[in-house]
Amino acid sequence: MVAGTVDCRRCQHYYVTWDVRFPHGCRLIGFKSRLMPAWEVKKTSGRDCQGYAAKLSGEEVKT
């Protein structure tokens, strides 16, 4: 992982797709990718992903 980028697997917008060619997806930006979405954002814009939102833990989800 590139230093300074976010970990998509810990983001609430990340999901695993059923598409073998593009296994990683981002619901916020609305795309699927071969690489982690944050890596694609870093590669194209030169900046870290600005949409990262940490997943809620099981303790915080209780209502």
What report would you give on this structure?
With 63 residues, this protein is of the alpha+beta class. It has a domain at 8-48. It contains 2 helices and 3 strands; from the N terminus they run E-E-E-H-H. Strands 1-2-3 form a 3-stranded antiparallel sheet, with no helix packed on it. Strand 1 (14-16) and strand 2 (24-26) form a beta hairpin. The mean pLDDT is 86.
Please outline what is shown here.
With 63 residues, this protein is an alpha+beta fold. The chain has helices at 37-45, 58-61; strands spanning 14-16, 24-26, 31-33.
- Shape type: flat
Strand order of the largest sheet: 1-2-3
Low-confidence stretches: none
Strand content: 5-15%
In DSSP terms (H or I, runs of 4 or more residues), the helix count works out at: 2
What class do helices, strands and sheet pairing give? alpha+beta
Radius of gyration, in angstroms, nearest whole number: 12 Å
What percentage of residues falls in helices of 4 or more residues?
Answer: 10-25%
Order of helices and strands: EEEHH
Termini separation = 35 Å
Compute the average pLDDT. Answer: 86
What's the main sheet like? 3 strands, antiparallel
The counted number of beta strands is: 3
Which SSEs are present, and which pair or pack?
Blueprint (H helix, E strand, L loop, with lengths): L13 E3 L7 E3 L4 E3 L3 H9 L12 H4 L2
Antiparallel strand pairs: 1-2, 2-3
